[in-house]
Amino acid sequence: MVVLNNTNNNNTADTTVEKNTRIQYPQERYFIDQPKAPGSYLGPIDATKPNADKIPLVFQPYTVKDLTLANRFVVAPMCMFSSTDGFFTDYHLVHLGSFATLGAGLILAEATAVVPEGRISPADTGIWKDEQIPGLKRIADFIHAQGSKFGIQLAHAGRKASVKAFYSDLPESAYWKNNVVGPSGGADFQWDSKHHVPRELSLQDIEETIKAFGAAAARAHKAGLDTVEIHGAHGYLIHQFLSPISNQRTDKYGGSLENRARFLLEVVREVRANFPAEKPIFLRVSATDYIEHLDGPSWEIEQTVQIAKWVKEAGVDVFHVSSGGNTPKQLINATFGYQVPFAERVKKEVPDLEVVAVGLITGGKQANEVLEEEKADLVAIGRAFLRSPNFVLNAAQELNVKAKFSAQYERGRM
């Protein structure tokens, strides 16, 4: 069945005269039923190969709560810096929608700020007001029509906010350098010389920020998203609270691990209270600060394992394990699959929590081995999807899998 939706009922273009004449064309949404989601397993390409009848785990469906994926490939959140005033745009529709037409099981939209000052840059997406819902829903509707699932990463950049997008040069008025915040404030907590000096969040600020995460989750549900991922990684605000490098508060949000984790746990509970119980919540964390070479306390895998247990009790269903980002003093040896051991550690020590592995996973065999060796339940792919949006179909070829193409692309199989 074809669904053609004209939002302009008289099927004529609206004309608005401002300084220049602008023509607003009728918006059309065109969907074709996909009998099976692109990226679904259909069988082996060559049935004569050894073990051809064994379905690679990465191409087996995956279910958590009411979320069922056609395969276990996740498009990791990746900032595109292609927004004005937080609104999702046609760029995001094409960018994210392409992964759905090419078979990704779950697509996670980029770090999306829950408050304006929580953006990494002025060009970031946002979900702090209801007006931002329709643009996001348009993307969700398209992705769902292809058979994929869609989520969004709820974020606050904290002391890493209000910086220049790496390819964009906006006027000074676009930034909020005097309203950059963190768990601790002052020049000692400036991330580096390219970032701004943060002010310390007050208890009222913290309460308002927690509420903003919950309100953002409610908007994500209204937009029809299947899941939300709380961003607690990469040196952004939640990670800043967790790590003693960036959190030296002396109140109930600082000091002990229990206190430093308090902000995260309150965010999780607020998001859970504002997002349907049948829909899963993801949490992305950094497993380590990578500063073992320096003296002094930092954030490490042992603490990550502990908070994994706590967030499971608070309402997190899926734990997405990344690393780094909280200090320029970090030393990272970024080799293939370098973050997978962190995910494996969490999965072994918190067996009732679903785990996502990420980090230079660049091919189908590598992704499948991570799952077959029980190091994670899902694999997230980032930059490899940018290099090749048809990553899933390439992985299928590598694994001798005949994967479903979208109806419109089926002629490209041969």
From TrEMBL:
CDD domains: OYE_YqiM_FMN
Molecular function in Gene Ontology: FMN binding; NADP binding; NADPH dehydrogenase activity
Keyword Zinc: no
InterPro entries, sorted: Aldolase_TIM, OxRdtase_FMN_N, YqjM-like
Keywords, in A-Z order: Flavoprotein, FMN, NADP, Oxidoreductase
Pfam families xref list: Oxidored_FMN (PF00724)
CC cofactor: FMN
Keyword NADP: yes
Domain NADH:flavin oxidoreductase/NADH oxidase N-terminal: start-end pairs: 58-400
Name of the protein described by the UniProt record: NADH:flavin oxidoreductase/NADH oxidase N-terminal domain-containing protein
